[in-house]
Design a protein that fits this description.
With about 70 residues, the protein is an alpha+beta fold. The protein is built from 2 helices and 3 strands; from the N terminus they run E-H-E-E-H. Helix 1 packs antiparallel against helix 2.
């Protein structure tokens, strides 16, 4: 399943890279790409895993950039 999410309050491309790398390590993630210029997260996950992956992705984003939000 592929889905795109908005990212809010992401301060720099370096933070985006760190968040992207962290999300790619979450079980169930096939691919993840953050485009800093558009503030979008393109996420591809195994079927039935979207909700649990999104919860973990939000935790990773908060750990790297405390003000960062991934509204769902």
């Amino acid at each position: 399943m592929k889905k795109t999410f908005r990212i809010e309050n992401l301060c720099c491309a370096n933070c985006a890279r760190k968040i992207e790398e962290g999300i790619k390590k979450i079980p169930g993630v096939i691919d993840a790409k953050i485009v800093f210029m558009t503030m979008k997260l393109n996420l591809e996950v195994e079927d039935g895993m979207l909700e649990s992956v999104l919860i973990e992705a939000k935790k990773i984003a908060k750990k790297v950039e405390p003000d960062c939000e991934i509204p769902a």
